[in-house]
Amino acid sequence: MFSNKEMFKQALVEKLKTNFGKKVETASEYDTYRALGALVKDEITKKWMETEERYQKDQTKQVYYFSMEFLMGRLLGNNLLNMNLLELVQDGLEDLGLSLDSLEENENDAGLGNGGLGRLAACFLDSLASLNLAGHGYGMRYRYGMFDQHIIDGKQVELPDEWLSKDFIWEVRRPEDAIEVKYEGYVDFKEDSSGNWKFEYVDYEKIRAVPYDVPIVGYNNETVNTLRLWSAEATTEDIMVRAKRKNEMGYFLNHRRALESVSEFLYPDDSTEEGRRLRLKQEYFLVSAGVQSIIQSFEKTGLPWSAFSDKTAIHINDTHPALVIPELMRILVDEKGLGWDQAWEITQSVVSYTNHTTLSEALESWPVNTVRTLLPRLFMIIEEINERFCQALWKTYPGDFDRIANLAIVADGQVKMAHLSIVGSHSINGVAKLHTEILKKREMKSFYETFPSKFNNKTNGITHRRWLMHANKPLSNLITEAIGDQWMNEPDRLKDLLKKKEDLSFLDRLDDVKQNNKIALADWVKETQGITVDPQSIFDVHIKRLHGYKRQLLNALHIMHLYNELKADPTLDMVPRTFFFGAKAASGYYFAKKVIQLINRIAAVINKDDEVNDKIKVVFLPNYSVSTAEKIIPASNVSEQISTASKEASGTGNMKFMMNGALTIGTMDGANVEIHDLVGDENIYTFGLSSEEVLEYYRTGGYSSKQVSDQDERLRHTLEQLIHYSPFSKGEMDFQPIYEALINHNDEYFVLKDFADYVMAQRKVSQDYQNKRLWNAKSLVNIAQSGHFSSDRTIQEYASQIWNIERVQMLK
Ligand code: 26V
């Protein structure tokens, strides 16, 4: 360990020389970044080995968090922070004329996720290690992560994310731990001498799953856990068997490409039959490689199968890895010779499941035929699980055909993954109180009635280490100055800040921190986008995936309305505001892409109009990602969390903003409800329909968007500007589909219904912002109450209530 600055400098100079043949003065920033990374990794590796040895020696119960997505972002800064090396390295680099911030820019984001679900998984890994819990991630090493978004002619253009074009310095390839995953073929079964059925899987195709391990460093402790990412590889030998038959090189190359495509893309296009099949293939790839490797490690302990569930917990992040249930059954029954009932009991007690959405279009189901042909043995097992489950239901609800058809795992020619997940696990949780209630009372009501004790809530969280200590060092330092540093280990202690609520000089300093962060963001926006923004204006930020229910459109219509007001009366006294957006739309999501185009059009119109652009500005930040979020959130005043109530399961961006002192303007949806409970009415701006009202409208109808628009001149005018000649439409029909969704299709997400209330809430925001002290006190209450949303709290709840694991005691 380099325990002082001089040793570190020397070590860095040495590393640059031995690894890259460079001197500090001549090395590129990229080389220096890699040398620094290598040094840090050396330090990490020692702890990593010791952690592994300790787990083995103590036979510690291990949790495996299976997720198709881990949105890790960059690791250098966080690893330095958690290793307690940040300041030493920063100082040392400065001596050498280098800046850590700019070295960090050399790391590509590991963008192996789409949005909230993937980032949650990444925050959870940080908390597991930081709490000394033996929990590891199992995921996919996609060759291309979340696409790179460019805005060309005001429209989204997607380019492949070639994140591996630079070395991913943290991973370790472990070919010795490779696993074979089998697909297609058919199942032979025969009775053995003792009358038991034996299954033999024949003529299958196999793909080699090679693990790449990434160390997950705990904060200021001795724990280093593992994120194991699986990559598909075809061995020459496998391919040659078939290539010889075909006798051609072209076949060899094509076949290899086909096999390796399993881990090529995150979330391949699921609008075509081919794309969907590949997605299922990916899911089974993660599941089978993961479960086989868990079984292999368990077998090394020499313990009997009856101890398996005492030593292992498997968590599935949404239903994507739900095949762990039949896969575990297959291995226990077919390969290890356990009876069905014992295997089933083990499986249920090992597996737990989190639901992340109630949107029906996002609930996974697979055509029976696809599952049967791709995974013939697994399909048989799923059918058996279904058969036994339906029989049990028949006993409890004799004659109730409707209920049984509703709950069945295989029905209407589909395999329903949520049903499989509930039946095959001992715990199912929602991700915020409201979401869990909606699951219990509506979406999964019949299941809740059947298995009430399986259902529970675990409100999401975010790691305060990345999102406060690392992303916002000035705020972190100010907090520590005020209340000491205990909050870093016990984030709930942030509450101690409440005593500063009336301390005017402290509030001024809080304001200074925010102001400096805003200046830094303004500089970055100028540099990267060429747009000048006023750091004195309110920074109003809406960053998240683009989706109808998240209602970026409501925000956009409000900005159009402000523009109209200013054009009607250019002398209007308006508190200056800069609206920031960041959002990626799924490549096949036409409507979402139209909204992106509209926002960019609004920005183009407003930013160049000198009559309005000293009052309002609009910035669309392309390629929103973890590393851009880290720059934007600390500089925000207003956090837009305006989903249609009942639709956003939790939201986690809302928590990051709160922790960085932004005030929320939001609906009573997801975790906003819990933010509201904690900060009180006067420290949040809520508006709009409640979730009950929304769900009632969906059930009984009675909403007419046309009527709402006809009765509100502001809305009517704004909507007309989408389809008639206006600065926004420029006389083209680009935004007709938006108009149609709102008026002809009756506004599925209640954008128009909530408009008036949103305008009022925004006015209140502007008013309050003018009273700086009042605003800063509100900001302080938000920071003080945000400790509850540390993922440490969430993970502690999972650990004690679902996984039944305890913190490992360690001597330093
Ligand atoms: C998936 C899809 C896929 C098909 C088309 C529409 C659609 C819409 C939504 C989704 C979401 C899938 C699951 C997910 O990412 N849920 C998010 O999980 C976060 C972590 O729990 C939570 O904070 C977000 O509210 C929730 O949307």
In short:
With 812 residues, the chain is of the alpha/beta class. The chain is 50% helix and 15% strand.
Provide the fold topology:
Blueprint: H1 5-20, H2 29-58, E1 62-66, E2 70-73, H3 76-82, H4 86-95, H5 100-104, E3 110-112, H6 116-130, E4 135-140, E5 148-152, E6 155-159, E7 172-173, E8 179-183, E9 186-191, E10 197-202, E11 205-217, E12 224-233, H7 236-246, H8 249-260, H9 273-301, H10 308-311, E13 312-317, H11 324-335, H12 340-350, E14 351-354, E15 365-367, H13 368-374, H14 376-396, H15 401-407, E16 410-411, E17 414-416, H16 417-423, E18 427-430, H17 433-443, H18 445-450, E19 455-457, H19 464-470, H20 473-483, H21 504-529, E20 538-543, H22 552-568, E21 577-582, H23 590-607, E22 616-620, H24 626-632, E23 638-641, H25 653-659, E24 663-666, H26 672-679, E25 685-686, H27 691-700, H28 705-710, H29 713-723, H30 736-744, H31 751-770, H32 772-785, H33 791-803
Helix pairs in contact: 1-2, 1-4, 3-19, 6-33, 7-8, 9-11, 11-12, 11-14, 13-14, 20-21, 21-32, 22-23, 22-29, 22-31
The site of ligand 26V has 19 residues, from helix 6.
How would you describe this protein?
Pfam families: Phosphorylase (PF00343). It catalyses: [(1->4)-alpha-D-glucosyl](n) + phosphate = [(1->4)-alpha-D-glucosyl](n-1) + alpha-D-glucose 1-phosphate. With 812 residues, the chain is of the alpha/beta class. Among the domains are: 323-458, no CATH class; 481-689 and 755-787, Glycogen Phosphorylase B (Rossmann fold), CATH 3.40.50. It contains 33 helices and 25 strands. Strands 1, 4, 7, 8, 11, 12, 13, 14, 18 and 19 form a 10-stranded mixed beta sheet that branches. Strands 22-21-20-23-24-25 form a 6-stranded parallel beta sheet, with helices on both faces. A 3-stranded antiparallel beta sheet has the order 15-17-16. The radius of gyration is 27 Å and the shape is globular. The model has no long low-confidence stretch (mean pLDDT 96). It binds ligand 26V. The site of ligand 26V has 19 residues, from helix 6.
